[in-house]
Specification:
The complex is a heterodimer of chains A (313) and B (381). Helices cover 8% and strands 44% of the residues of chain A. By secondary structure, chain A is mainly β. In chain B, the strands form six sheets. In chain B, strands 2, 4, 5, 7, 8 and 16 form a six-stranded mixed sheet that branches. Chain B has helices at residues 2-18, 237-244, 311-320, and strands spanning 40-45, 49-50, 58-64, 68-75, 81-91, 94-100, 114-122, 128-131, 141-144, 148-150, 155-160, 164-172, 177-187, 190-195, 213-221, 227-229, 280-283, 290-291, 297-299, 302-309, 322-328, 331-336, 343-348, 355-365, 370-379. Classes of the chains: A mainly beta (313), B mainly beta (381).
C-alpha cells in the first residue's frame, strides 16, 4: 500500500512538472511583441499599414505597447497615415481614394464629404487642424493638384497652380513650407523623373530643390526642420537619402540593391524608419543615424507579414 | 657539269623564295593581309539558329594570325556562362573551327534563347586579344513600321532587318493595353510570321477589327554572331536561370568601344529573366457575388477588386515601382499611381451602367514591364 502511494505521489509530481513546462511553452513569446533590440529605446508612436489577411490595415505601436494595435477592419486598403498635431488621431487615405481620420482611442472614423473626387496622400499640418492632400484630376490622367482642407472651417482651397503631377506633400515642422514631389517626365525622357520641390505655405512661391534626374519619392522632414529624407533611384535602385537643404548637402543613407522607401524620422531625429523589401517582403527597418546600426522591426514578430506606409509621431 | 649543278641549285633556291611559307612554319608577320594586325579575325558562324534537341550543332569559325592560347566561351543573354568550349588551348595560326552542341556545362540542352560567344587569345609574345561582340554591337533600337495580318490564316507578318529581340504589343489607342503577342523574344533576320488569332490576351475582344486598335512592333539588335536555339520544350529560359543556373560565373564586363549607330534600347540593359510581362491575378474577395454558368461574375453595389502580382515578380516590381490602371470596356477608368501588391481597389458600381462589361487591369512598371489581364463581368443594380 505504501509503495502504491509513493508511486502515485511520483506520478502526481511528474504531472505537475509537465503542466508547468507546458505552461511555460504556451506563454506569449516575449519576442512576439515589438521586436526591438534590447538596447534600443523606442519612443513615440509609429503608425503603419500591414497586410494581415490580403488587404492593408492601419496599426500603431507606442512605447507602451506590447503588441501592435489594430485600428481598422475593412475589406479595402488603408494607406498613407499621418498623425494629427495632438497625436490622438491619424488622417489617412483609402484605396477608393477617399480621405478619412480615425481617433486612436475610440477608433471612430470620420470622412470628409467636402473633399470631392479622388484624393490621396494626406498630411496633417504641424500645429493647425488642416491637411494638405493630392487631388487626382478626373479629366486628365497623370495630372494632380495639391489642396488644403481646413478641418475647423471645413473649406477646401487649391494650394498650388503647377502643371503636371505633384505628390507626397509634407508640411515642415514649423508649418511655413511644404516639400513635395513634382513629376517631370516619363517616356519622353526615357525614364520616369520626379524631383523634390519646396513651396511656401501660402502657395505663391515654389522652387526645385534638387536636380537628381531620377525618380524621387516620399519626402519626410526631420523634427528640427533642417533635413529632408526621401527615396530616390539616382544610383540605379531606390535608396534612402537625406538632403540637408540649408547646407545643400546630400547623404546616401542606404545602399541595398532592393527597394528602400518611405522614410520617417524618430521624434528625436536620431533614427530613420523606412520600408525595404530587401528580404523579399516589404518590411520596416530602422537605422540609427549616429551609430549606423540597421535592424529590421517585425511588429508582429512574424517575418511573413508585410508592412508599409509609416509615420512616426 | 659543275655549271649544271650550280644552275640547278640556283633554280631551286629561287623557287623556294617565291613560294608561300606553309602556315605551321610561320611565327612572325601577318597571316592574311585582310586581318592586318589583329590576332583574331574573320569570326563567323555556321547558322543563325539550330535545334540541339534534334542533334544539330553550331560551327564557330575564326582565324588566328599567330599561334595562341585560346579560350572560347558561350554566354546567355544575361551574360551568364553557358559552356567553355576550350580554355587556354594552343591553336593556330590559321582557320579554326569550334563546335557547340547546344548543351551547357552540365550537358543539359539549353533553353530556347539567343546566345553569343567570346574568343580570348594570347599570342607567344604575350599579345592578347578578345573577340567580345558586346563591346561593339547589340542593343540598337529599331521600329518595324509595316506588318500584314492575314486574318484567315491567323498570321502576322513583318520583316526584321537584323537579328534582334522583338516586342509586339497591342491595345486601344489612349485606352487599355490588351496583348503582348511577342514579349522580347529573339528572332532571326528576315520575314517573320507570328501566329495571332486577332484577339486580346484573354480572347475577349476582337482587336484586329477594332476601329481604335493600335499595335507597336519594336526591337533591339542582338550582339554580332548571336545564335538562337530552339526545340527545347522542357524548360524555358526563366526557369532555367532561376532553378538550374543561378550561380554561373558572369562574363567579364567590358566597355563599349564604338559609338552605336542608333540609340541603345533601355531594355538591352535589363535582365531577360525579369524584363517580361508579369503574371497578375484579379479577385473579388467579398462574399456577395455570384457567377453565371460560364463563370462570369455578377457584381453590384461596392466590390473590392484585389489585384496581385505573382509572387515571383513581387520583389522585382516593387524595386521598379509601378502603377495599376483599370479600364472598363477598354477605356480608362481608374488608376493607382504608387502601386503595391496586393492592391484592394474599392469599385463603386453605382457609377457603371448595368449589363455586360469587360474589366482590364494593366500593371505598368516604370521600366516598361506591363502585366495584362481582362475579364468579363456583369453589373446589376
Amino acid at each position: 500500500m505504501k509503495k502504491v502511494c509513493k508511486s502515485i505521489k511520483k506520478v502526481i509530481i511528474i504531472f505537475i512538472i509537465w503542466i508547468i513546462l507546458l505552461g511555460l511553452q504556451l506563454r506569449p513569446n516575449p519576442s512576439y511583441s515589438l521586436s526591438f533590440p534590447k538596447d534600443f529605446n523606442f519612443e513615440g508612436k509609429l503608425a503603419f499599414t500591414a497586410n494581415i489577411q490580403g488587404n492593408w490595415e492601419l496599426f500603431i505601436v507606442t512605447s507602451n505597447s506590447k503588441e501592435p494595435v489594430r485600428l481598422t477592419h475593412t475589406p479595402h486598403d488603408e494607406r498613407c497615415p499621418s498623425w494629427s498635431p495632438d497625436g490622438q488621431k491619424i488622417t489617412y487615405s483609402l484605396s477608393d481614394d477617399q480621405i478619412a481620420r480615425i481617433d486612436i482611442n475610440t477608433k471612430k472614423v470620420t470622412y470628409f464629404p467636402q473633399l470631392e473626387g479622388r484624393n490621396i496622400q494626406p498630411d496633417n499640418a504641424p500645429s493647425e487642424d488642416k491637411i494638405i492632400y493630392v487631388h487626382l484630376n478626373p479629366e486628365i490622367r497623370d495630372e494632380t493638384d495639391l489642396y488644403i482642407f481646413s478641418m475647423g472651417e471645413r473649406n477646401v482651397k487649391r494650394f498650388l497652380r503647377q502643371p503636371s503631377a505633384q505628390y507626397y506633400p509634407r508640411w515642415s515642422p514649423d508649418g511655413r513650407q511644404i516639400v513635395y514631389i513634382n513629376f517631370h517626365c516619363s517616356a519622353d525622357c526615357g525614364r520616369a523623373i520626379q524631383e523634390l520641390w519646396m513651396a511656401k505655405a501660402d502657395g505663391y512661391n515654389a522652387w526645385q530643390l534638387l536636380m537628381t534626374n531620377s525618380m524621387c519619392m516620399s519626402p519626410a522632414w526631420s523634427p528640427d526642420g533642417e533635413k529632408i529624407a526621401f527615396s530616390s533611384d539616382m544610383k540605379g535602385n531606390f535608396d534612402i537619402w537625406i538632403f540637408e537643404y540649408r547646407k545643400n548637402g546630400l547623404i546616401q543613407v542606404t545602399k541595398d540593391a532592393n527597394l528602400d522607401s518611405h522614410p520617417c524620422w524618430s521624434p528625436d531625429g536620431q533614427n530613420l524608419a523606412f520600408i525595404s523589401n530587401r528580404t523579399g517582403k516589404m518590411m520596416i527597418w530602422i537605422k540609427d543615424l549616429k551609430t549606423e546600426r540597421l535592424f529590421p522591426f517585425y511588429p508582429f514578430g512574424d517575418k511573413s507579414i508585410s508592412c508599409k506606409d509609416l509615420d512616426w509621431e | 657539269m659543275r655549271k649544271v649543278f650550280w644552275s640547278f641549285i640556283s633554280i631551286i633556291l629561287i623557287f623556294m623564295a617565291c613560294s608561300p611559307i606553309p602556315p605551321h612554319l610561320r611565327d612572325e608577320g601577318t597571316y592574311l593581309d585582310d586581318c592586318k594586325e589583329e590576332l583574331i579575325c574573320n569570326v563567323t558562324i555556321s547558322t543563325v539558329s539550330f535545334n540541339p534537341k534534334a542533334g544539330q550543332e553550331l560551327g564557330i569559325y575564326y582565324t588566328l594570325t599567330h599561334r595562341a592560347k585560346v579560350t572560347v566561351q558561350i554566354f546567355d543573354p544575361d551574360h551568364g556562362l553557358i559552356r567553355t568550349l576550350c580554355r587556354g588551348i594552343t591553336k593556330g595560326p590559321g582557320e579554326i573551327q569550334e563546335i557547340w552542341n547546344g548543351r551547357d556545362t552540365e550537358e543539359r540542352i539549353v533553353p530556347n534563347e539567343a546566345y553569343f560567344f567570346t574568343i580570348e587569345a594570347e599570342g607567344p609574345s604575350g599579345k592578347k586579344m578578345v573577340y567580345d561582340p558586346t563591346t561593339f554591337s547589340g542593343g540598337e533600337e529599331g521600329i518595324i513600321s509595316e506588318a500584314d495580318f492575314n486574318e484567315e490564316m491567323g498570321i502576322l507578318t513583318y520583316s526584321l532587318p537584323e537579328m534582334g529581340r522583338v516586342l509586339i504589343r497591342m491595345g486601344i489607342k489612349e485606352g487599355a493595353l490588351l496583348n503582348a503577342l511577342v514579349d522580347w523574344e529573339p528572332r532571326s533576320p528576315g520575314k517573320i510570321n507570328e501566329y495571332w488569332n486577332g484577339k486580346d490576351k484573354n480572347n475577349l475582344i476582337d482587336l484586329s477589327n477594332h476601329p481604335r486598335s493600335k499595335m507597336i512592333i519594336i526591337y533591339f539588335a542582338l550582339p554580332e554572331n548571336s545564335v538562337i536555339t530552339y526545340g527545347n520544350d522542357e524548360i524555358n529560359y526563366r526557369e532555367y536561370k532561376l532553378r538550374l543556373a543561378q550561380n554561373r560565373p558572369q562574363k567579364e564586363t567590358r566597355p563599349r568601344l564604338n559609338m552605336p549607330s542608333r540609340p541603345i534600347s533601355p531594355h538591352y540593359q535589363l535582365s531577360n529573366i525579369w524584363d517580361r510581362e508579369p503574371k497578375i491575378t484579379v479577385e473579388f474577395p467579398l462574399k456577395e457575388k455570384t457567377a453565371t454558368d460560364d463563370g462570369v461574375l455578377i457584381l453590384k453595389g461596392k466590390e473590392v477588386v484585389r489585384v496581385s502580382l505573382d509572387k515571383e515578380y513581387e520583389q522585382f516590381f516593387a524595386n521598379q515601382q509601378f502603377e495599376i490602371s483599370f479600364f472598363l470596356d477598354t477605356e480608362y477608368y481608374a488608376e493607382e499611381e504608387t502601386g503595391y501588391t496586393p492592391f484592394n481597389w474599392l469599385w463603386d458600381l453605382s457609377e457603371v451602367s448595368p449589363g455586360n462589361h469587360i474589366l482590364t487591369v494593366n500593371i505598368n512598371s516604370y521600366k516598361d514591364q506591363i502585366g495584362i489581364l481582362s475579364m468579363k463581368v456583369i453589373v446589376e443594380k
